[in-house]
Request: fold
Amino acid sequence: MLPDLPLTPEVPICIYGAGEVGQNFAVRARQQGYKAIAFFDCKLVGKHCNGLPVLNYTSPLPDNLDKSEVVTVICLADGMEHVAIAEALYSAGFSYIVLLPMGLPVTKRRAYALTRLYNQVLEVRKNLTVLVADYGSLRTPNLDPEHAILRRDEERLTVLMDATIVFSEDYSIWKGDITKVHGDARYSDVNIIICDFCFPLFAYLSGSTASHEQYLAVFKNNLEGLQLNIAKRNRLFDLYCRELDRGLDFFIESAASAEWSPKGYFNLVGGHHRTSFLVFREHKLLPLRISEADFARWCNHAYLKKIRDELSANPVQSLYAPVPHPAFQTFPARRESRLPSIYSALYRYLGVDGLAGKNVFDLCDDEGYFARLLYRLKAGTVTAYAPNVVKARLTTALNELLYMPQIHVSVGDLATNDSCSFLVVMDRATGIAADERLALIKQADALCTDKMLWESYAEDFDADCQTIYAQSGFNHCEILMHVVLDGRRRTAAVFSK
Reply:
Protein backbone atom coordinates (compact mmCIF):
# COMPACT_ATOMS: atom_id res chain seq x y z
CA MET A 1 0.00 0.00 0.00
CA LEU A 2 1.11 3.54 -0.74
CA PRO A 3 1.54 6.09 2.07
CA ASP A 4 -1.09 8.78 2.66
CA LEU A 5 -0.69 11.75 0.32
CA PRO A 6 -0.98 15.34 1.66
CA LEU A 7 -3.28 17.32 -0.64
CA THR A 8 -1.21 20.45 -1.27
CA PRO A 9 -1.50 23.05 -4.05
CA GLU A 10 1.33 21.26 -5.86
CA VAL A 11 -0.55 17.96 -6.17
CA PRO A 12 -2.33 17.49 -9.54
CA ILE A 13 -6.10 17.01 -9.20
CA CYS A 14 -8.41 15.21 -11.64
CA ILE A 15 -12.14 15.68 -11.33
CA TYR A 16 -14.52 12.81 -12.12
CA GLY A 17 -17.78 14.33 -13.37
CA ALA A 18 -18.06 17.56 -15.35
CA GLY A 19 -21.54 18.39 -14.11
CA GLU A 20 -22.52 21.15 -11.73
CA VAL A 21 -20.74 19.62 -8.71
CA GLY A 22 -17.52 19.05 -10.63
CA GLN A 23 -17.45 22.44 -12.32
CA ASN A 24 -18.11 24.30 -9.07
CA PHE A 25 -15.30 22.36 -7.42
CA ALA A 26 -12.94 23.18 -10.28
CA VAL A 27 -13.66 26.92 -9.93
CA ARG A 28 -13.10 26.87 -6.15
CA ALA A 29 -9.93 24.78 -6.45
CA ARG A 30 -8.31 27.19 -8.90
CA GLN A 31 -9.39 30.19 -6.85
CA GLN A 32 -7.58 28.70 -3.85
CA GLY A 33 -4.48 27.94 -5.87
CA TYR A 34 -4.95 24.17 -6.32
CA LYS A 35 -3.78 22.38 -9.48
CA ALA A 36 -6.85 21.00 -11.25
CA ILE A 37 -5.62 19.49 -14.56
CA ALA A 38 -8.53 17.60 -16.15
CA PHE A 39 -12.10 16.35 -15.99
CA PHE A 40 -13.19 12.74 -16.52
CA ASP A 41 -16.62 12.50 -18.15
CA CYS A 42 -17.45 9.91 -20.81
CA LYS A 43 -20.25 12.10 -22.22
CA LEU A 44 -17.95 15.07 -22.90
CA VAL A 45 -14.66 13.45 -23.92
CA GLY A 46 -12.66 15.69 -26.25
CA LYS A 47 -14.27 18.93 -25.09
CA HIS A 48 -13.21 21.54 -22.51
CA CYS A 49 -14.99 22.67 -19.35
CA ASN A 50 -13.84 25.75 -17.46
CA GLY A 51 -10.64 25.70 -19.43
CA LEU A 52 -9.82 22.07 -18.54
CA PRO A 53 -9.72 19.14 -21.00
CA VAL A 54 -12.34 16.41 -20.61
CA LEU A 55 -10.70 12.99 -20.89
CA ASN A 56 -11.52 9.34 -20.56
CA TYR A 57 -9.99 8.09 -17.32
CA THR A 58 -8.36 5.24 -19.24
CA SER A 59 -6.43 7.72 -21.44
CA PRO A 60 -2.94 9.12 -20.64
CA LEU A 61 -2.92 12.22 -18.44
CA PRO A 62 -1.63 15.65 -19.58
CA ASP A 63 2.17 15.92 -19.55
CA ASN A 64 2.28 12.12 -19.14
CA LEU A 65 1.69 12.38 -15.41
CA ASP A 66 1.71 9.12 -13.46
CA LYS A 67 -1.86 8.22 -12.45
CA SER A 68 -0.65 7.04 -9.06
CA GLU A 69 0.65 10.55 -8.26
CA VAL A 70 -2.58 12.51 -8.80
CA VAL A 71 -5.62 12.90 -6.60
CA THR A 72 -8.95 12.15 -8.25
CA VAL A 73 -12.03 13.72 -6.67
CA ILE A 74 -15.34 12.04 -7.55
CA CYS A 75 -17.85 14.85 -8.06
CA LEU A 76 -21.11 12.99 -8.57
CA ALA A 77 -24.24 13.97 -6.66
CA ASP A 78 -25.28 10.33 -6.22
CA GLY A 79 -23.05 9.00 -3.44
CA MET A 80 -24.11 5.41 -4.13
CA GLU A 81 -22.15 5.54 -7.41
CA HIS A 82 -18.87 6.59 -5.84
CA VAL A 83 -17.49 3.17 -4.91
CA ALA A 84 -18.20 1.66 -8.34
CA ILE A 85 -16.46 4.63 -9.96
CA ALA A 86 -13.54 4.33 -7.53
CA GLU A 87 -13.15 0.64 -8.41
CA ALA A 88 -12.94 1.54 -12.10
CA LEU A 89 -10.43 4.32 -11.41
CA TYR A 90 -8.33 2.04 -9.23
CA SER A 91 -8.28 -0.63 -11.94
CA ALA A 92 -7.10 2.05 -14.38
CA GLY A 93 -4.11 2.90 -12.17
CA PHE A 94 -5.38 5.70 -9.90
CA SER A 95 -4.39 5.25 -6.27
CA TYR A 96 -5.52 8.43 -4.48
CA ILE A 97 -9.28 8.87 -4.76
CA VAL A 98 -11.51 11.19 -2.72
CA LEU A 99 -15.04 9.78 -2.47
CA LEU A 100 -18.08 9.23 -0.31
CA PRO A 101 -17.53 5.85 1.41
CA MET A 102 -21.05 4.47 0.90
CA GLY A 103 -20.50 0.72 0.50
CA LEU A 104 -16.82 0.60 1.43
CA PRO A 105 -15.84 -2.22 3.85
CA VAL A 106 -14.61 0.13 6.57
CA THR A 107 -15.58 0.76 10.18
CA LYS A 108 -18.18 3.36 11.02
CA ARG A 109 -15.48 5.60 12.48
CA ARG A 110 -13.41 5.36 9.29
CA ALA A 111 -16.51 6.02 7.15
CA TYR A 112 -17.26 9.19 9.13
CA ALA A 113 -13.63 10.34 8.71
CA LEU A 114 -13.75 9.74 4.95
CA THR A 115 -17.03 11.65 4.67
CA ARG A 116 -15.55 14.61 6.57
CA LEU A 117 -12.49 14.53 4.31
CA TYR A 118 -14.69 14.50 1.21
CA ASN A 119 -16.67 17.52 2.39
CA GLN A 120 -13.47 19.36 3.33
CA VAL A 121 -11.99 18.75 -0.11
CA LEU A 122 -15.12 19.88 -1.95
CA GLU A 123 -15.20 23.07 0.11
CA VAL A 124 -11.49 23.50 -0.81
CA ARG A 125 -10.68 26.21 1.69
CA LYS A 126 -7.32 27.92 1.71
CA ASN A 127 -4.54 26.14 3.58
CA LEU A 128 -6.44 22.85 3.39
CA THR A 129 -4.57 20.17 5.34
CA VAL A 130 -5.89 16.68 4.56
CA LEU A 131 -4.28 13.32 3.92
CA VAL A 132 -5.66 11.17 1.10
CA ALA A 133 -5.32 7.43 1.69
CA ASP A 134 -4.37 4.89 -0.95
CA TYR A 135 -7.72 3.52 -2.17
CA GLY A 136 -6.25 0.02 -2.05
CA SER A 137 -6.21 0.25 1.74
CA LEU A 138 -9.93 1.09 1.78
CA ARG A 139 -11.34 -1.46 -0.66
CA THR A 140 -9.95 -4.56 1.04
CA PRO A 141 -11.98 -5.78 4.03
CA ASN A 142 -9.90 -5.69 7.20
CA LEU A 143 -10.65 -8.84 9.21
CA ASP A 144 -10.02 -7.29 12.59
CA PRO A 145 -12.15 -8.65 15.50
CA GLU A 146 -11.72 -5.35 17.31
CA HIS A 147 -14.32 -3.86 14.93
CA ALA A 148 -17.04 -5.50 17.04
CA ILE A 149 -15.92 -3.93 20.32
CA LEU A 150 -17.72 -0.80 21.44
CA ARG A 151 -15.82 -0.42 24.73
CA ARG A 152 -13.67 -2.23 27.25
CA ASP A 153 -14.36 -2.16 30.99
CA GLU A 154 -11.79 -4.15 32.98
CA GLU A 155 -12.40 -7.76 31.90
CA ARG A 156 -15.80 -7.08 30.31
CA LEU A 157 -16.42 -5.96 26.77
CA THR A 158 -19.45 -4.32 25.20
CA VAL A 159 -19.76 -5.64 21.67
CA LEU A 160 -22.14 -5.61 18.73
CA MET A 161 -23.35 -9.12 17.97
CA ASP A 162 -25.40 -10.53 15.10
CA ALA A 163 -28.83 -11.68 16.25
CA THR A 164 -28.33 -15.09 14.56
CA ILE A 165 -25.97 -16.16 17.37
CA VAL A 166 -27.85 -14.57 20.28
CA PHE A 167 -29.95 -17.11 22.19
CA SER A 168 -32.21 -16.83 25.19
CA GLU A 169 -31.20 -17.87 28.70
CA ASP A 170 -30.25 -21.54 29.02
CA TYR A 171 -32.14 -22.70 32.10
CA SER A 172 -30.26 -26.02 32.15
CA ILE A 173 -27.06 -24.21 33.14
CA TRP A 174 -28.65 -21.19 34.88
CA LYS A 175 -26.27 -20.03 37.61
CA GLY A 176 -28.86 -18.10 39.60
CA ASP A 177 -31.90 -19.27 41.60
CA ILE A 178 -33.95 -21.19 39.04
CA THR A 179 -37.02 -20.99 41.31
CA LYS A 180 -37.16 -17.25 40.63
CA VAL A 181 -37.33 -17.78 36.87
CA HIS A 182 -40.99 -17.52 35.85
CA GLY A 183 -40.50 -18.01 32.14
CA ASP A 184 -41.66 -20.92 29.99
CA ALA A 185 -39.10 -23.70 29.50
CA ARG A 186 -40.03 -23.77 25.80
CA TYR A 187 -38.20 -20.48 25.43
CA SER A 188 -34.97 -21.68 27.03
CA ASP A 189 -31.85 -21.68 24.80
CA VAL A 190 -33.72 -20.49 21.72
CA ASN A 191 -32.51 -17.99 19.13
CA ILE A 192 -33.73 -14.49 19.94
CA ILE A 193 -35.54 -14.35 16.59
CA ILE A 194 -37.75 -17.32 17.53
CA CYS A 195 -37.89 -16.61 21.25
CA ASP A 196 -40.56 -14.02 20.62
CA PHE A 197 -42.72 -14.14 23.73
CA CYS A 198 -41.95 -10.45 24.27
CA PHE A 199 -43.15 -9.47 20.81
CA PRO A 200 -46.89 -9.76 21.60
CA LEU A 201 -46.32 -7.44 24.57
CA PHE A 202 -44.47 -4.88 22.42
CA ALA A 203 -47.11 -5.13 19.71
CA TYR A 204 -49.84 -4.54 22.31
CA LEU A 205 -47.99 -1.60 23.87
CA SER A 206 -47.39 -0.06 20.44
CA GLY A 207 -51.10 -0.28 19.68
CA SER A 208 -50.81 -2.69 16.74
CA THR A 209 -52.61 -5.59 18.46
CA ALA A 210 -55.55 -5.72 20.83
CA SER A 211 -54.26 -8.37 23.23
CA HIS A 212 -51.19 -9.32 25.21
CA GLU A 213 -52.55 -12.64 26.43
CA GLN A 214 -49.85 -14.61 24.62
CA TYR A 215 -47.22 -12.78 26.64
CA LEU A 216 -49.09 -13.28 29.91
CA ALA A 217 -49.46 -17.01 29.21
CA VAL A 218 -45.70 -17.46 29.32
CA PHE A 219 -45.71 -16.25 32.91
CA LYS A 220 -48.77 -18.19 34.10
CA ASN A 221 -47.01 -19.09 37.36
CA ASN A 222 -46.79 -15.43 38.27
CA LEU A 223 -49.76 -14.08 36.35
CA GLU A 224 -51.28 -11.94 39.11
CA GLY A 225 -48.06 -10.09 39.77
CA LEU A 226 -47.37 -9.65 36.09
CA GLN A 227 -50.78 -8.13 35.32
CA LEU A 228 -50.09 -5.51 37.95
CA ASN A 229 -46.79 -4.78 36.23
CA ILE A 230 -48.14 -4.23 32.69
CA ALA A 231 -48.42 -0.51 33.39
CA LYS A 232 -44.76 -0.57 34.45
CA ARG A 233 -43.87 -2.42 31.24
CA ASN A 234 -45.76 0.27 29.36
CA ARG A 235 -43.59 3.00 30.90
CA LEU A 236 -40.48 0.97 30.16
CA PHE A 237 -41.55 0.46 26.55
CA ASP A 238 -42.07 4.21 26.14
CA LEU A 239 -38.60 4.78 27.60
CA TYR A 240 -37.08 2.29 25.15
CA CYS A 241 -38.80 4.02 22.22
CA ARG A 242 -37.65 7.50 23.28
CA GLU A 243 -34.09 6.36 23.83
CA LEU A 244 -33.90 4.50 20.53
CA ASP A 245 -34.99 7.64 18.71
CA ARG A 246 -31.84 9.25 20.17
CA GLY A 247 -29.57 6.42 19.02
CA LEU A 248 -28.17 3.27 20.63
CA ASP A 249 -26.39 4.95 23.55
CA PHE A 250 -28.92 3.84 26.17
CA PHE A 251 -28.85 0.24 24.98
CA ILE A 252 -25.06 0.22 24.87
CA GLU A 253 -24.81 1.60 28.41
CA SER A 254 -27.38 -0.91 29.69
CA ALA A 255 -26.36 -3.80 27.43
CA ALA A 256 -27.54 -7.22 28.55
CA SER A 257 -24.92 -9.76 29.60
CA ALA A 258 -24.32 -12.91 27.62
CA GLU A 259 -22.16 -16.00 28.04
CA TRP A 260 -20.53 -18.30 25.52
CA SER A 261 -22.21 -21.64 24.93
CA PRO A 262 -20.22 -24.78 24.01
CA LYS A 263 -22.71 -25.04 21.11
CA GLY A 264 -20.98 -22.10 19.42
CA TYR A 265 -23.19 -19.11 20.23
CA PHE A 266 -24.12 -16.82 23.13
CA ASN A 267 -26.86 -17.15 25.74
CA LEU A 268 -28.39 -14.10 27.38
CA VAL A 269 -28.03 -13.75 31.13
CA GLY A 270 -30.97 -11.46 31.85
CA GLY A 271 -31.84 -8.36 29.84
CA HIS A 272 -34.22 -10.34 27.63
CA HIS A 273 -36.85 -7.60 27.27
CA ARG A 274 -34.52 -4.82 26.12
CA THR A 275 -32.69 -7.17 23.77
CA SER A 276 -35.95 -8.44 22.28
CA PHE A 277 -37.13 -4.84 21.95
CA LEU A 278 -34.24 -4.10 19.58
CA VAL A 279 -35.12 -7.16 17.51
CA PHE A 280 -38.78 -6.08 17.54
CA ARG A 281 -37.61 -2.73 16.15
CA GLU A 282 -35.66 -4.61 13.48
CA HIS A 283 -32.14 -4.16 14.80
CA LYS A 284 -29.89 -7.01 13.65
CA LEU A 285 -26.72 -6.04 15.54
CA LEU A 286 -27.30 -6.12 19.30
CA PRO A 287 -25.10 -4.57 22.03
CA LEU A 288 -24.12 -7.18 24.63
CA ARG A 289 -21.65 -7.41 27.50
CA ILE A 290 -19.34 -10.42 27.44
CA SER A 291 -16.08 -11.47 29.06
CA GLU A 292 -12.66 -11.18 27.44
CA ALA A 293 -12.39 -14.98 27.57
CA ASP A 294 -15.72 -15.44 25.77
CA PHE A 295 -14.68 -12.87 23.18
CA ALA A 296 -11.57 -14.93 22.49
CA ARG A 297 -13.73 -18.03 22.07
CA TRP A 298 -15.96 -16.12 19.65
CA CYS A 299 -12.90 -14.99 17.67
CA ASN A 300 -11.63 -18.58 17.32
CA HIS A 301 -8.22 -17.23 16.28
CA ALA A 302 -6.79 -20.48 14.91
CA TYR A 303 -9.52 -20.75 12.30
CA LEU A 304 -9.62 -16.99 11.72
CA LYS A 305 -6.05 -17.26 10.45
CA LYS A 306 -7.19 -20.00 8.09
CA ILE A 307 -9.94 -17.71 6.75
CA ARG A 308 -7.47 -14.85 6.29
CA ASP A 309 -5.14 -17.14 4.34
CA GLU A 310 -7.99 -18.36 2.15
CA LEU A 311 -9.21 -14.83 1.36
CA SER A 312 -5.65 -13.69 0.73
CA ALA A 313 -5.16 -16.48 -1.81
CA ASN A 314 -8.61 -16.05 -3.37
CA PRO A 315 -9.83 -12.49 -2.73
CA VAL A 316 -13.56 -11.84 -2.66
CA GLN A 317 -15.19 -8.42 -2.45
CA SER A 318 -18.44 -9.57 -0.83
CA LEU A 319 -20.19 -12.57 0.64
CA TYR A 320 -23.77 -13.76 0.20
CA ALA A 321 -24.75 -12.80 3.74
CA PRO A 322 -23.15 -11.41 6.91
CA VAL A 323 -20.94 -13.74 8.91
CA PRO A 324 -21.77 -13.56 12.66
CA HIS A 325 -18.16 -13.16 13.71
CA PRO A 326 -16.45 -10.04 15.11
CA ALA A 327 -13.87 -9.88 12.30
CA PHE A 328 -16.56 -9.80 9.59
CA GLN A 329 -18.70 -6.90 10.78
CA THR A 330 -17.43 -4.58 8.05
CA PHE A 331 -17.25 -7.28 5.36
CA PRO A 332 -19.73 -6.47 2.56
CA ALA A 333 -22.70 -8.81 2.16
CA ARG A 334 -25.10 -8.95 -0.78
CA ARG A 335 -28.15 -10.09 1.20
CA GLU A 336 -29.63 -10.58 4.68
CA SER A 337 -27.95 -7.55 6.26
CA ARG A 338 -31.07 -6.23 7.96
CA LEU A 339 -34.33 -7.29 9.58
CA PRO A 340 -36.77 -8.53 8.54
CA SER A 341 -34.84 -11.07 6.50
CA ILE A 342 -35.42 -14.42 4.86
CA TYR A 343 -33.77 -16.15 7.80
CA SER A 344 -35.95 -14.37 10.38
CA ALA A 345 -39.11 -15.26 8.46
CA LEU A 346 -37.89 -18.84 8.01
CA TYR A 347 -36.96 -19.19 11.68
CA ARG A 348 -40.43 -18.12 12.75
CA TYR A 349 -42.05 -20.41 10.20
CA LEU A 350 -40.08 -23.50 11.25
CA GLY A 351 -40.14 -22.82 14.99
CA VAL A 352 -37.81 -24.17 17.65
CA ASP A 353 -38.00 -27.87 16.72
CA GLY A 354 -39.18 -27.62 13.12
CA LEU A 355 -36.11 -29.36 11.72
CA ALA A 356 -35.14 -31.54 14.68
CA GLY A 357 -33.27 -34.59 13.38
CA LYS A 358 -34.14 -33.90 9.73
CA ASN A 359 -31.65 -33.88 6.86
CA VAL A 360 -31.08 -30.51 5.21
CA PHE A 361 -29.42 -29.58 1.94
CA ASP A 362 -28.53 -25.98 1.16
CA LEU A 363 -28.44 -25.81 -2.64
CA CYS A 364 -27.92 -22.03 -2.65
CA ASP A 365 -24.52 -20.56 -3.61
CA ASP A 366 -24.27 -18.81 -0.23
CA GLU A 367 -20.98 -19.95 1.37
CA GLY A 368 -23.02 -22.20 3.69
CA TYR A 369 -25.17 -19.39 5.13
CA PHE A 370 -28.51 -21.21 5.25
CA ALA A 371 -26.83 -24.50 6.14
CA ARG A 372 -25.38 -22.95 9.30
CA LEU A 373 -28.64 -21.27 10.26
CA LEU A 374 -30.60 -24.50 9.87
CA TYR A 375 -27.97 -26.49 11.72
CA ARG A 376 -28.73 -24.33 14.75
CA LEU A 377 -32.37 -25.42 14.47
CA LYS A 378 -31.28 -28.87 15.59
CA ALA A 379 -31.25 -30.35 12.09
CA GLY A 380 -29.72 -33.79 11.60
CA THR A 381 -27.32 -34.13 8.69
CA VAL A 382 -26.69 -30.75 7.04
CA THR A 383 -25.00 -30.36 3.66
CA ALA A 384 -23.95 -27.12 1.99
CA TYR A 385 -23.50 -26.77 -1.75
CA ALA A 386 -20.43 -25.14 -3.29
CA PRO A 387 -20.14 -24.52 -7.05
CA ASN A 388 -16.36 -25.13 -7.15
CA VAL A 389 -13.38 -26.21 -5.06
CA VAL A 390 -12.42 -22.63 -4.10
CA LYS A 391 -15.92 -21.90 -2.76
CA ALA A 392 -15.89 -25.27 -0.99
CA ARG A 393 -12.69 -24.36 0.88
CA LEU A 394 -14.14 -20.99 1.91
CA THR A 395 -17.41 -22.58 3.05
CA THR A 396 -15.55 -25.24 5.04
CA ALA A 397 -13.35 -22.57 6.66
CA LEU A 398 -16.41 -20.49 7.64
CA ASN A 399 -18.11 -23.57 9.12
CA GLU A 400 -15.02 -24.27 11.22
CA LEU A 401 -14.66 -20.64 12.27
CA LEU A 402 -18.26 -20.66 13.53
CA TYR A 403 -17.90 -24.00 15.37
CA MET A 404 -19.91 -26.08 12.91
CA PRO A 405 -17.40 -28.47 11.32
CA GLN A 406 -20.13 -31.15 11.24
CA ILE A 407 -21.72 -29.47 8.20
CA HIS A 408 -20.81 -31.33 5.03
CA VAL A 409 -19.72 -29.38 1.96
CA SER A 410 -20.61 -30.82 -1.43
CA VAL A 411 -18.93 -29.61 -4.60
CA GLY A 412 -21.76 -29.77 -7.11
CA ASP A 413 -25.43 -30.64 -6.76
CA LEU A 414 -26.81 -33.64 -4.93
CA ALA A 415 -26.97 -36.90 -6.78
CA THR A 416 -30.46 -38.04 -7.67
CA ASN A 417 -30.24 -40.98 -5.27
CA ASP A 418 -29.71 -38.65 -2.31
CA SER A 419 -32.60 -37.14 -0.40
CA CYS A 420 -33.30 -34.57 2.27
CA SER A 421 -36.27 -33.39 4.31
CA PHE A 422 -35.59 -29.69 3.77
CA LEU A 423 -34.07 -28.23 0.62
CA VAL A 424 -32.89 -24.63 0.20
CA VAL A 425 -33.18 -23.53 -3.41
CA MET A 426 -33.68 -19.79 -2.89
CA ASP A 427 -32.37 -17.60 -5.70
CA ARG A 428 -31.26 -20.48 -7.92
CA ALA A 429 -34.58 -19.88 -9.75
CA THR A 430 -34.03 -16.18 -10.45
CA GLY A 431 -32.56 -14.96 -13.70
CA ILE A 432 -32.78 -18.30 -15.54
CA ALA A 433 -34.92 -19.40 -18.47
CA ALA A 434 -38.23 -21.20 -18.00
CA ASP A 435 -36.81 -24.55 -19.18
CA GLU A 436 -33.97 -24.23 -16.65
CA ARG A 437 -36.46 -23.50 -13.86
CA LEU A 438 -38.43 -26.59 -14.88
CA ALA A 439 -35.29 -28.74 -14.67
CA LEU A 440 -34.54 -27.23 -11.24
CA ILE A 441 -38.07 -28.01 -10.04
CA LYS A 442 -37.77 -31.64 -11.15
CA GLN A 443 -34.39 -31.96 -9.47
CA ALA A 444 -35.80 -30.47 -6.26
CA ASP A 445 -38.75 -32.86 -6.40
CA ALA A 446 -36.42 -35.85 -6.72
CA LEU A 447 -34.23 -34.70 -3.84
CA CYS A 448 -36.69 -33.32 -1.31
CA THR A 449 -39.16 -35.41 0.66
CA ASP A 450 -40.87 -32.67 2.67
CA LYS A 451 -40.24 -28.89 2.37
CA MET A 452 -38.39 -26.56 0.02
CA LEU A 453 -37.35 -22.92 0.46
CA TRP A 454 -37.85 -21.25 -2.93
CA GLU A 455 -37.43 -17.76 -4.29
CA SER A 456 -38.61 -16.24 -7.58
CA TYR A 457 -38.85 -12.80 -9.07
CA ALA A 458 -42.29 -11.58 -8.02
CA GLU A 459 -43.53 -11.44 -11.62
CA ASP A 460 -42.56 -15.10 -12.12
CA PHE A 461 -43.86 -16.47 -8.83
CA ASP A 462 -47.44 -17.35 -9.82
CA ALA A 463 -46.23 -19.16 -12.93
CA ASP A 464 -43.58 -20.98 -10.88
CA CYS A 465 -46.27 -22.07 -8.40
CA GLN A 466 -48.38 -23.58 -11.16
CA THR A 467 -45.36 -25.36 -12.63
CA ILE A 468 -44.27 -26.68 -9.23
CA TYR A 469 -47.77 -28.01 -8.49
CA ALA A 470 -48.06 -29.59 -11.95
CA GLN A 471 -44.55 -31.03 -12.25
CA SER A 472 -43.74 -32.15 -8.71
CA GLY A 473 -45.15 -33.61 -5.53
CA PHE A 474 -45.21 -30.22 -3.80
CA ASN A 475 -48.85 -29.28 -3.24
CA HIS A 476 -48.84 -26.47 -0.68
CA CYS A 477 -47.18 -23.07 -0.52
CA GLU A 478 -46.72 -20.53 2.25
CA ILE A 479 -45.23 -17.17 1.32
CA LEU A 480 -42.64 -16.07 3.88
CA MET A 481 -41.96 -12.53 2.71
CA HIS A 482 -41.20 -10.25 -0.20
CA VAL A 483 -37.80 -8.66 -0.59
CA VAL A 484 -36.30 -6.19 -3.04
CA LEU A 485 -32.81 -6.96 -4.31
CA ASP A 486 -31.00 -4.96 -6.99
CA GLY A 487 -34.20 -3.01 -7.51
CA ARG A 488 -36.38 -6.06 -8.29
CA ARG A 489 -39.02 -7.53 -6.04
CA ARG A 490 -38.67 -11.19 -5.09
CA THR A 491 -40.97 -13.62 -3.32
CA ALA A 492 -39.63 -16.21 -0.87
CA ALA A 493 -41.86 -19.13 0.03
CA VAL A 494 -41.83 -22.62 1.52
CA PHE A 495 -43.35 -25.40 -0.62
CA SER A 496 -44.47 -28.60 1.12
CA LYS A 497 -45.41 -32.10 0.00
Remarks:
- The chain has a mean pLDDT of 91.
